[in-house]
Automatic annotation (TrEMBL):
Residues 337-363 form the Outer-membrane lipoprotein Wza C-terminal domain. It comes from the Bacteria. GO terms for cellular component: cell outer membrane; pore complex. Its main location: membrane. InterPro entries: Poly_export, Poly_export_N, SLBB_dom, Wza_C. Residues 162-239, 246-332 form the SLBB domain. Residues 72-156 form the Polysaccharide export protein N-terminal domain. It comes from Pseudomonas silesiensis. It is found in: Cell outer membrane. This is Capsular biosynthesis protein. Keywords: Cell outer membrane, Ion transport, Lipoprotein, Membrane, Palmitate, Polysaccharide transport, Porin, Signal, Sugar transport, Transmembrane, Transmembrane beta strand, Transport. Belongs to the BexD/CtrA/VexA family.
Length: 368
């Protein structure tokens, strides 16, 4: 038995360690204990109606920069590369010099790189920078020297000179022409066709005049959204990022722990828990539901840990209004009985080991 005593002491120390870590558990007392190293780096915040209201007031995802909304499209001005179709009524030889049997584009007039175009009996005329009406009037004025009271009409067959660029999570990327019909943001997005499964619709970036603007397309579903009034102009670039780098992680006592792609800023705590099948009824503690939100620099600001008690039915309504952010970690802790069961499952193997050690010592003693 003399050798069994040190073994018993070792097992006892092992069991003591198990008491403090029988399973995953977040000790909220240690999080905010005054004077501890963690207290300066972690801030525990209960999720309350007041907190949800404060978070909602601080949410700027529905705000669009005033300078974007103030832009109003002007009348289209012709540019290099545009294909112009000129009609002179009662003069088919001028309207379709290549023959009426040809496709309409074959009789179009291309605006040259220097901004000019050629037309019979008119000669070379400067087209770039003119509106459709200004070009029509200039052509009619010159034709009047050879045609009595010419009736001239001008239209654009192909718009090339003004465009925006789409990139990222669109089915169709590249150039989208701006025509004589003003191009709205939503029109451009519709032409590009968003890849809904993998697009981060809350992170659309509009580049204009050397500046970048973040636009949350989720705002379209919110009250008083003004994205419908946002027009694009020549040179704008729209980049829609993929959401593979933005996730919400749901861990702990849930049906299926996993990472959820963060598709939009409207994801709330109820959405996240519902996506993974909810809490495990047998093992979870409804009062230990946490949202852990990291920061870029721990030296400057603490990590925020939000807590909600989902034992109350009203708390589910509150969770529905608590919006998650990319890289948030949702953690559900185990119930007291679960921690006890895990503790017991660790005690019995250790106790068996102790009994085995004592039995060996007894056998050795009797043999001697």
């Amino acid at each position: 038995m003399n050798r069994a005593l040190p073994l018993a002491m070792l097992v006892g120390l092992t069991l003591q360690g198990c008491i403090f870590s029988p399973g995953q558990h977040m000790d909220t007392g240690n999080l905010v204990r005054e004077g501890s190293p963690e207290s300066s780096r972690i801030e525990l915040l209960p999720i309350t109606p007041k907190l949800v209201a404060i978070e909602a007031a601080a949410d700027r995802s529905n705000v669009v920069a005033p300078e974007l909304l103030s832009y109003q499209p002007v009348e289209y001005r012709i540019g290099a590369g545009d294909l112009i179709f000129i009609t002179v009524w009662d003069h088919p030889e001028l309207t379709a010099p290549s023959g009426s049997q040809q496709q309409i584009e074959a009789n179009g007039r291309l605006v040259r790189p220097d901004g000019s175009l050629f037309y019979p009996y008119v000669g070379t005329i400067e087209a770039a920078g003119k509106t459709i009406e200004e070009l029509r009037s200039a052509i009619a004025s010159r034709l009047a020297k050879v045609v009595a009271e010419p009736q001239v009409d001008v239209s654009i067959l192909r718009f090339v000179s003004q465009k925006i660029i789409l990139s990222g999570a669109f089915l169709k990327t590249g150039q989208v022409p701006i025509t004589n019909t003003p191009l709205r943001l939503l029109d451009a997005i519709g032409q590009g066709s968003v890849v809904t499964e993998s697009a981060d619709i809350s992170g659309l970036v509009l580049k204009r005049d050397g500046r970048e603007y973040l636009i949350d397309l989720d705002a379209l579903n919110r009250k008083n959204s003004n994205l419908h009034n946002l027009y694009l102009k020549d040179g704008d670039q729209l980049h829609l990022p993929y959401n593979d780098q933005k996730k919400v992680y749901v861990l702990g006592e849930v049906t299926a722990s996993r990472a959820i792609n963060f598709k939009g800023s409207n994801m709330n705590l109820t959405d996240a828990l519902g996506t993974v099948g909810g809490l495990r009824q047998e093992t979870s503690s409804g009062k230990e539901v946490y949202v852990i939100r990291g920061v870029e620099n721990l030296a400057d600001e603490p990590v925020k840990v939000f807590q909600i008690d989902l034992k109350s039915p009203s708390a589910f309504a509150l969770a529905q209004h608590f919006k998650l952010q990319p890289q948030d970690v949702v953690y559900v802790g185990p119930a007291d009985v679960t921690r006890w069961n895990r503790f017991i499952s660790q005690v019995f193997p250790s106790a068996n080991l102790l009994r085995t050690g004592v039995s060996i010592q007894e056998d050795l003693g009797s043999t001697n």
